[in-house]
Design a protein that fits this description.
Distance between the termini: 40 Å
Strand order of the largest sheet: 3-2-1-13-14
Oligomer: single chain
Order of helices and strands: EHEHEHHHEEEEHEEEEEEEHH
Helix content: 25-40%
Structural class: alpha/beta
Largest sheet: 5 strands, mixed
Shape: globular
Length: about 240
């Protein structure tokens, strides 16, 4: 079993196309998407149509949930832009997405944690930054989930963690947004320090799971210029550098 895991595309179609080309080059036949696919000032409608055409198993992240809010006026700027660009067919696709999935008894997929799409799993916010979660924090966030492999996203940070019980937890990182700031659960920044697109490949062999955290370079300049054109210098800097500060 060999699976490519993508997440946090955020409407960055150029990064997604580069990642898919790399997946094909490596001969991986199955792709799953952990959500937060569209939100942002880039190409939400085109990215939705691209994903709809691929037929990959996709999850709803917290931003998909937010895009379906009945009051678009209350959205943040990234969600508001995406909501204004997508049509009814894209909205119907978003409504069809589940917040989690079980590929098999041994593989569980979620966006944040098994219980909450907006909760960090493998990191904890502390004094405006993120630090690796402690084993106790990871165990608490796992709850009753006992799958041998748990894939999560949301923080945009590629990471591999082994739980106290021997479960493998994988965050593939972000395809489309290498840095951001947020105010939940408190103001903080997340920065990868490089503009590359990230994803993961997991493969089960006779001795267990092998995980590859993959970084893909791509031409990010058109997306950075698009962010600038749409009045988002924060995204422009993040896309070019992997930093927001």
């Amino acid at each position: 079993m060999r699976i490519a895991i993508v997440a946090d595309i955020h409407g960055n179609l150029a990064a997604l196309e580069a990642v898919e080309a790399d997946i094909r080059r490596r001969g991986v036949g199955r792709v799953v998407n952990l959500g937060d696919s569209l939100s942002g000032p880039l190409l939400p409608r085109e990215t939705a149509q691209y994903l709809m055409g691929r037929g990959w198993l996709s999850l709803a992240g917290n931003h998909e949930r937010q895009l379906l809010t009945p009051d678009p006026a209350g959205m943040g700027p990234s969600d508001a832009y995406a909501r204004g660009q997508i049509g009814e067919s894209e909205l119907a696709w978003i409504r069809s997405l589940a917040p989690s999935a079980r590929l098999s008894p041994s593989i569980f997929l979620c966006h944040g944690t098994p219980a909450k799409d907006s909760e960090y799993f493998l990191e904890t916010v502390e004094r405006g930054r993120v630090r690796p979660a402690t084993p106790a924090e990871v165990e608490n966030r796992l709850g009753a989930e006992r799958a041998a492999l748990v894939a999560c996203a949301h923080t945009h940070l590629a990471r591999l963690v082994c739980s106290r019980g021997g479960q493998l937890l994988v965050n593939p990182g972000s395809v489309g947004l290498p840095a951001y700031d947020d105010v939940i659960p408190e103001p903080h920044v997340v920065e990868t320090g490089a503009p590359d697109a990230r994803y993961a490949i997991v493969e089960r062999g006779p001795d267990g799971w092998t995980v590859s955290l993959v970084s893909v370079s791509y031409d990010f300049e058109p997306m950075a210029r698009l962010a600038a054109k749409r009045g988002r210098p924060d995204w422009e800097r993040a896309l070019r550098t992997g930093y927001v500060t």
